[in-house]
Amino acid sequence: xxxxxxxxxEGDPEDDLMSILDEIDLxxxxxxxxxxxxxxxxxxxxxxxxxxREVFGSLGFTRLVETPDGFVAYRDGDMM
Length: 80
Prior knowledge:
single chain, alpha+beta, 31% helix
């Protein structure tokens, strides 16, 4: 089952992404959200910087793959 979460940023795409990740994880992630936690997140508009990798890693996403318009973060065990 796929889901989609959209949000409008306030300025810097990296800062905006990092500011919303806890909320996304609360509602869709390993923190007890609705149903099974997401196993992949596609991000548009910013790349996987060291800071972004650290935050995603703390949420269990160990593989970040760059795409032309951003990246996809995969949780442990997901081999898409």
